Amino acid sequence: MINWNLDYKMIDIHTHMGPEYPIYYPEHDADSMVRYMDECGVELIVSAPCEDLFVTGSVRRDITTAMRTYPDRIKGYFAFNPNTGATVQEMEKAFAENPGYVGLKFLPDYHRTNITDPSYADALAFANERKLIVLSHTWGLSMNAEQCNSAEKIRQIVETYPDLKFIMGHSIQGQSDIAIKIAKDYENAYLDLCDTGRFNGIIEKMVAAVGAQKVLYATDAPMQGYRFIQGAVLAADITDAEKKLIFRDNALRLLNMEDK
Amino acid sequence: MKLIDANACIGSDFVKHPIVNHESFIVMENVKTAETPAELISVMDKFEIQQAAVWHRAMFDYDPIKGNEVLTEAIRGYEDRMLPVWTILPAISDTEFAPDTFFDKMKKNGVKMLKAFPLQNRYILCDVTMGDQLKAMEELQIPLYLEPQPDYQYIYDVLKEFPNLTVILNNIGIWPSARLIYPLLKRYPNVYLETGDTGLTHAYEEICQKFGSHRLLYGSNFPSNSPGCSLNCLLKAKISDEERENIAHRNMERLLGEVKL
Ligand SMILES: [Zn+2]
Description:
The complex is a heterodimer of chains A (260) and B (261).
Chain A: E1 10-15, H1 30-40, E2 42-47, H2 50-54, H3 61-69, E3 74-79, H4 88-97, E4 101-106, H5 121-129, E5 133-139, H6 151-160, E6 165-173, H7 176-185, E7 189-192, H8 202-210, E8 215-216, H9 227-235, H10 240-254
Chain B: E1 4-10, E2 17-20, E3 26-29, H1 37-46, E4 51-56, H2 57-61, H3 64-74, E5 82-87, H4 99-108, E6 113-115, H5 118-121, H6 127-140, E7 144-146, H7 153-161, E8 167-169, H8 178-187, E9 191-194, H9 203-211, E10 216-217, H10 228-236, H11 241-258
Parallel strand pairs in B: 1-4, 4-5, 5-6, 6-7, 7-8, 8-9, 9-10
Antiparallel strand pairs in B: 2-3
Zinc ion (ZN) binds at residues 14, 16, 169, 194, 220 of chain A.
């Protein structure tokens, strides 16, 4: 019998905030998100709002306000768009002023720039030096039939920057078997269940190959609810202890919050 | 609660499994398939799913006619658990699908539902191509599963021509846009959504409130997805038990009861 209930709260390390062009999802502001987190048993999210990812000249108001309003519920990624860039000084200032920032967010595919492009180098060095999390979108083949964030490039990044914690958003969807290999080969590479976690059998495959300590619960909320991927993990043929690592403990470790 | 899965597939993948990802394009991935009905039954038992509408990978990867035969052969003896879904082709070329014989054949084989893959099989699902078949399906109230590939336009078009066709939208990708689905649910009372890819925030609550719980059919979209995904959403949605039962099995039972074969 599948146990559909947890006696602890989940942490989602891959979320966004605010509206985005492709779909209708009205409950996208911080207040609505926290309400839905309460409903679904999510204690904490790490978020990269769409205004920082898709608008030039963003002043990062959504995330900084959300992190101030809900310091125990919402942490943030500093979204880095290589087309507009951000200097190391800007990033230093943002991290100093906003203790809720835990890392950087990249969308190489959407920004149509290879993650190995020199325009990412300063940001990667910044994250590496400070041992930050980098959550990057990763796909084998991109929307534009490019390969901005495919497996061989991700391997290069995690090898070049061993001190940052690299979360492979969507686990290099389309090349997930290679993502699993990368997570096994590199201590600083993590698998992310956003979308990809629903594929039948993939959670068991990841846990068997790499161990549950490298697999992270992730949803893309508010573009997706919390329960869809939760259901895949709850139903997976892995132990309850492995489920807890995926839903919570791995995120706490990455966020240096193991005391929680 | 009784569960009927409105969308499960048996048969292993020819190469890899094509999955509609969250940006609505196809990614090829290795998923754990159910090669045989017995394997699917063990998945159904794990999730306490009593019955499943089942199609076979060969209907898509190989050939609809051969694939329909493969399915029929495979599920013999499992009729109490598996509700077969066949694939249709235009009778103008493939005469096996002519209305005067095909629907009798469906009846003889206990088949009450159909799928069409016009993009894969290279035809246009419309009056010009197969009007007599679509007219007969309207009259016989045979549910037709349609996937929005490459997009929703053909579904909008065929419903304009055959507004009484019973259509089950399925395999829609996990960022299914209300902008594409709600208009169909509003205009056509005979359009249904199979929930295998549905996990958006409060999607079940909103659809039940706007269009009624009778428009959703619980489905797994197995093996693209673990059946746990949509089931967890259905079990925990803030809807009434009555609405949950409708989605879980009653709507599918009603649809099957309405088929006039
Ligand atoms: Zn994302």
